[in-house]
Write a structure and sequence with these properties.
This protein is mainly alpha-helical. The protein folds into 3 domains: 2-128, no CATH class; 145-224, no CATH class; 239-322, no CATH class. It contains 15 helices and 9 strands. The strands form 4 sheets. The protein has a 3-stranded mixed β-sheet. Strands 4-5 form a two-stranded antiparallel sheet. The protein has a two-stranded antiparallel ribbon with strand order 6-7. β8 and β9 form a beta hairpin. α7 (170-180) runs parallel beside α9. It is flat, with a radius of gyration of 23 Å. The protein starts with 5 loop residues before the first strand and ends with a helix. The site of zinc ion has 8 residues, from α1.
């Protein structure tokens, strides 16, 4: 019967473990992609705990890493209250605070444990997926975003969850992160939380003052640094107007494209000159992210150079490049 399904390899120390969250094994879920772009013939069996097994059954996606992300997002949602404990308290504060009454004392005793369990489950990375010793290609976690010790499936997911946890309107946090950059999430949260209010007018005023502040900082920085070694931003492109795309099965990140556009970089040569600056900018997140972004950007710029007709007529960002 083994030809009717394929099981992923399970290393010895991971027997009886859910691949998604690390909880005890319940049952294997047979994953079939939908839509099935790669024409996978048989279900891929993944060891699951009871909860992740139930989650899997309700998810239809085209690849295993998307399935993993969706399961993680459901865990985030289900355990939002537990994860919130780490936002509201530190372990020491909880230990020191004097709750009164039986129910509250119970909360104090179990709260940190609940937070840690939820955190471990959402952060759990599984083990590398292989079938009969051959690694399954195309699995990526480069889009994951980590903040304050918690892994999110991507920047958008992080913004959505953090806005919820901190009571900030999501579109507002999105705009602030866009302005200050993904590496300054703590700053962005602080800025949003200390804003005067969240009416449309108040948000617009706060964003204007943030833009003025950033412009001033940029001027100060450019006076300190020598222009030969820094890649200064000469113009602004909003991340929401940039399309990410897939070329030759490689994802080209909108953030990498934004970085290039803002520095007037539209050829491989110009990119090569600024390679160090690129890595300095993106390696703050992770080396792997920087490398993947750079590789994607190279493929993109090469395509634009070698296929000018495509660049002029089909590139979803052609109007943005025309502005350079
Ligand atoms: Zn699980």
């Amino acid at each position: 019967m083994t030809d009717l399904y394929q099981s992923i390899d399970v290393p010895f120390n991971y027997r009886h473990t859910c691949w998604f969250c690390g909880e005890p094994y319940f049952e294997s879920y047979g994953f079939m992609p939908s839509p099935n772009y790669e024409h996978q013939a048989h279900p891929l069996m993944l060891p699951c705990c009871q909860e992740c097994f139930t989650s899997c059954k309700s998810i239809k996606v085209s690849s295993l890493d998307l399935l993993r992300d969706k399961v993680k997002e459901q865990l985030h949602k289900r355990y939002a209250k537990h994860l919130q404990i780490g936002v509201n308290w530190t372990k020491e504060e909880l230990e020191d605070c004097e709750f009164e009454g039986k129910a509250l004392e119970g909360f104090r005793e179990s709260a940190w444990a609940m937070f840690e369990i939820a955190k471990e489950r959402v952060n759990y990375q599984g083990w590398p997926v292989s079938i009969d010793g051959i690694p399954v290609a195309g699995m990526t976690n480069v889009f994951q975003f980590e903040f304050d010790g918690i892994c999110y499936t991507g920047l958008n997911h992080a913004v959505q969850q953090l806005a919820l946890k901190h009571g900030i309107p999501q579109p507002y946090l999105e705009k602030v992160v866009e302005l200050v950059g993904r590496s300054k999430m703590a700053y962005a949260l602080r800025f949003c939380k200390t804003s005067y209010g969240y009416s449309d007018a108040q948000i617009a005023a706060s964003l204007d003052s943030l833009k003025a502040l950033l412009a001033e900082e940029a001027v100060n920085e450019s006076m300190v640094d020598s222009p030969a070694v820094t890649s200064t931003r000469s113009r602004e492109f909003s991340i929401s107007e940039i399309h990410d795309l897939i070329l030759y099965r490689t994802q080209i990140s909108a953030y990498a494209i934004q970085w290039a556009l803002e520095r007037g970089i539209d050829t491989l040569h110009k990119l090569a000159v600024q390679e160090d600056a690129f890595f300095e900018h993106f390696a703050k997140d992770s080396e792997m992210v920087a490398f993947t972004y750079f590789n994607g950007l190279q493929i993109y710029l090469e395509k634009r150079e070698t296929d000018p007709l495509w660049a002029e007529q089909e590139d979803p960002n052609r109007e943005l490049f025309a502005r350079l």
